[in-house]
Design brief:
alpha/beta, Spore_GerAC-like, single chain, GMP Synthetase, Chain A, domain 3, 2 domains, GerAC_N, Ger(X)C family spore germination protein
Length: 402
């Protein structure tokens, strides 16, 4: 009898892990949200206007199988409310299926909304386990997020997929921006030792024409999306935009650089272009005379990509060292200019406060309330070490060989 009781108990316990489908969700019941745009409501300053881009399943399947009438594989829903949760709830009346956010890839903030402040916007994003916080964040420069998400793209069927790929490519090939995930942005908004920064995207052309399918039926569309530079925040509000060079400097300091071009002037018209491909940045605070100084140490290993003059002989070690020295000067000036721009905007997007706290917690606690007046006057010291480790498949340029 006891053995039977134990056997039944064991069988019941074994049934517990088999209940893994209790919260299963079927695609036929879901509206898959792939992008979120948030703007200020033009009719009510207390509200936000949210745009959700949702996949149209039958259009995606038709385009993949090659059959059926080809249409736009996404649709947009818009709604207004005081919070994201209120707006998401109200938009349920627009969708025939339950809105499902687990596959969201991008959230775009309209510039006007970002300038007014977004610090209290993301509680539902951070709290709801169904909303993953690994999607990319962007600011719509000179535009509404709604207009960005209405733009029909030519390279990808689903517009947000093209935006996602643009972020990745522009970061990995040019280094003007770096991706920022929602969880990183929320952490920066909550931190008193770091100001947030986000990549920006811009709509070139006419917003109304950009949402027409005829816009993509041209070899060179007149209305298109373009990645821009980094936007920086102060106390949860958009402080402004860096230019491309300043954005590269921030990318380097944040140790996010994958690749960029350094153009070294040679003579009156010549240029040697090198590309750092292995990069390491170390930032720390030191104290001199009781005041913090930020030291930035950068190491690049680089390849020569282009040599359009006959002056530089890449087989000459002395000239290679000269190129390295010139590139170090260019990078040093670029970083100093970028950090100076942040200080003029009083946006600590490079997290100077964090390094000061790590070095001297007592100083930070004493001066935390006065940081806004201390930060713009902090000195920055930059050391750059560049080693050219390759020159391509030839050392000499064909220019001037005749």
């Amino acid at each position: 009898m006891v053995q039977r009781l134990w056997l039944c108990t064991i069988c019941l316990l074994l049934l517990l892990p088999l209940g893994g489908c209790w919260d299963s969700k079927y695609l036929d019941d879901l509206s898959i949200v792939v992008a979120i745009g948030v703007d200020k409501d033009p009719k009510n300053d207390d509200n936000i206007r949210v745009t959700l881009q949702v996949v149209v399943p039958n259009q995606v399947s038709d385009s993949q199988s090659g059959g059926g009438k080809e249409g736009i594989p996404v649709t947009n829903y818009t709604g207004t409310g005081k919070t994201l949760l209120e707006t998401f709830t109200s938009m349920t009346s627009l969708a025939s299926r339950r809105l499902y956010f687990a596959h969201n890839q991008v959230m775009i903030l309209g510039e006007e909304l970002a300038r007014n402040g977004v610090e209290d916007l993301f509680d539902i994003v951070d709290r709801d386990p169904e909303i993953r916080t690994d999607f990319d964040m962007l600011v719509a420069k000179n535009a509404k997020a709604e207009d960005i998400l209405k733009t029909i793209t030519s390279m990808e069927k689903i517009p947000v997929q093209q935006i996602y790929n643009m972020i990745k490519t522009y970061h990995e090939r040019v280094g003007v921006i770096y991706p920022v995930k929602a969880r990183e942005f929320i952490a920066a908004l909550q931190s008193d030792q770091d100001d947030a920064a986000l990549p920006s995207i811009e709509l070139i052309g006419n917003a109304n024409e950009a949402q027409k399918k005829s816009n993509t039926e041209q070899i060179e569309p007149e209305n298109y999306l373009r990645m821009d530079s980094m936007s920086v925040f102060k106390d949860g509000k958009l402080a402004g935009f860096l230019n491309p060079k300043e954005s590269q400097g921030l990318t380097i300091v944040k140790n996010k650089l994958k690749r960029m071009l350094i153009e070294i002037p040679v003579g009156d018209h010549g240029i040697v272009s090198i590309a750092p491909i292995q990069n390491q940045t170390k930032v720390e605070a030191v104290f001199r005379g009781g005041k913090p100084v930020i030291t930035i140490s950068v190491e690049h290993k680089a390849y020569v990509l282009d040599n359009n003059n006959s002056i530089v002989k890449l087989q000459d070690c002395g000239q290679i060292h000269w190129l390295e020295h010139q590139a170090e000067k260019i990078q040093r000036e670029l970083i100093l200019r970028s950090m100076g721009r942040l200080q003029s905007m009083n946006s600590d997007a490079a997290a100077y406060a964090k390094y000061v706290y790590q070095t001297n917690p007592k100083f930070w606690k004493r001066n935390k309330k006065d940081w806004n007046s201390i930060f713009p006057d902090i000195s920055t010291k930059v050391e750059v070490n560049i080693a050219i480790v390759g020159t391509g498949i030839r050392t000499r340029t064909y220019i001037g060989e005749k």
